[in-house]
């Protein structure tokens, strides 16, 4: 059987600057890695050297058949000191965009993907009332220089992730990949060292992943609104949105109230931020099931990913349907992926996820694209290089790239917009 998608359906893959570029020494995450007692398994170091190798990487994506590339611009590189902008950094990102066009890839740009400049921590980080204006001014500079080259922009990646981390990782017994103490949602001792490396104290050291209380959430929403305003003023044709990480929230008898509360916490409380957006970036990896006593652990025979959550590609279609009940914006799947050494399971994850997307389109839901997470095996935050999400493997000793069958599978779909299912 063949499932035919619209010809203009966007298909590609995604990366985050910090995870692929390497040597991002001005970032708050660099301080977290280097801090005394840091829980990071590895140091990012050169990462996969994408800052240098981006042109050959984009050429490789295109050769595989992919038609879109979602990447992030690193604020810490563009504005290494408050109000001081780097001409070399903006020239670099301009060439990344030009390379996308040269090789026929539609660029989708995230202005912020978790990491922030170290100097922002000296100003109170994401707890400061000045941060929305600072972020909007950074966006203004970028779009003054590059706006005409950016058709799609996400102001922020996964605005709701701090709240999800607090809940999800404490429930499944893991240290969050960004290093937050899941059980208490408190800053452990190593954060004092990270704060010192940023030149500040721990009470000022408020990273993006600590935006989980009402006051900080409202500051984040204001930052999104101000950034969107600046972007649209400078580049009216750029489509602007944000993305959210959304598990498929399910319940068994007795868990309906808990599930509804989680959906409100993860999604509905952020709805005011979407007013005025051009599209919604939806990101999904798994599901969460709630019962009378709260979140239920996966069944003993459940297939788990390397990240220890359930392998449920069908969750994507379910989440799209739930989101569509609350918003009428066009939806782009800006992340969907799986950490596994078994690439056949990645191929199946893509196929089954896209089957759900196709069903949503058939129902009249305006889904305009699918961007897989991630293009390369890369630096997965606290987990270092142990998690393999990539369509393309990387030998970090030689930086040699090796496309997996999943990359060719997604590229074939991107080229034809036809999904073949048995």
UniProtKB/TrEMBL annotation:
Keyword entries, A-Z: Glycosidase, Hydrolase
Membrane-crossing segments per the record: none
GO molecular function: beta-glucosidase activity
GO CC field: cytosol
Pfam family, one: Glyco_hydro_1
Annotated GO biological process: carbohydrate catabolic process
Family note: Belongs to the glycosyl hydrolase 1 family.
The protein's name in its UniProt record: Beta-glucosidase
Organism: Paenibacillus cellulosilyticus
């Amino acid at each position: 059987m063949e499932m035919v998608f619209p010809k203009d359906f966007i298909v590609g893959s995604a990366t985050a600057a910090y995870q692929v570029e390497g040597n991002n020494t001005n970032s708050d995450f660099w301080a977290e890695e280097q801090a005394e007692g840091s829980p990071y398994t590895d140091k990012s170091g050169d990462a996969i050297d994408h800052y240098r190798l981006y042109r050959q990487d984009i050429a490789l994506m295109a050769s595989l058949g992919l038609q879109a590339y979602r990447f992030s611009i690193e604020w810490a590189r563009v504005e290494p000191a408050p109000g001081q902008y780097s001409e070399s950094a903006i020239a670099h990102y301009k060439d990344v965009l030009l390379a996308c066009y040269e090789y026929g890839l539609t660029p989708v740009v995230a202005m912020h993907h978790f990491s922030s400049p170290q100097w922002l921590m000296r100003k109170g980080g994401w707890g400061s009332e000045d941060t929305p204006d600072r972020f909007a001014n950074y966006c203004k500079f970028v779009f003054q220089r590059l706006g005409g080259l950016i058709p799609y922009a996400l102001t922020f990646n996964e605005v709701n992730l701090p709240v999800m981390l607090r809940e999800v990782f404490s429930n499944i017994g893991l240290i969050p990949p960004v290093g937050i103490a899941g059980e208490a949602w408190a800053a452990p001792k190593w954060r004092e060292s990270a704060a010192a490396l940023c030149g500040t104290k721990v009470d000022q050291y408020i990273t993006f992943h600590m935006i989980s209380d009402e006051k900080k959430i409202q500051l984040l929403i204001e930052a999104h609104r101000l950034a969107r305003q600046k972007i649209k003023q400078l580049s009216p044709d750029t489509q602007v949105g944000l993305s959210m990480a959304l598990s498929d929230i399910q319940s068994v008898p007795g868990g309906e109230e808990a599930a509804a509360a989680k959906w409100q916490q993860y999604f509905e409380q952020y709805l005011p931020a979407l007013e005025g957006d051009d599209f919604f970036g939806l990101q999904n990896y798994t599901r969460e099931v709630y019962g009378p006593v709260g979140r239920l652990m996966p069944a003993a025979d459940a297939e788990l990913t390397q990240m220890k959550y359930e392998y449920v590609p069908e969750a994507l279609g379910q989440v799209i349907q739930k989101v569509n009940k609350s918003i009428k914006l066009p939806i782009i799947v800006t992340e969907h992926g799986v950490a596994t050494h078994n690439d056949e399971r990645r191929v199946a994850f893509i196929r089954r996820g896209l089957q759900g997307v196709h069903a949503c389109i058939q129902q009249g839901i305006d889904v305009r694209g699918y961007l897989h997470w991630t293009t390369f095996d890369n630096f997965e935050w606290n987990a270092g290089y142990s998690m393999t999400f990539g369509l393309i493997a990387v030998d970090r000793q030689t930086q040699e790239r090796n496309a997996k069958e999943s990359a060719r599978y997604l590229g074939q779909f991107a080229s034809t917009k036809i999904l073949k299912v048995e």
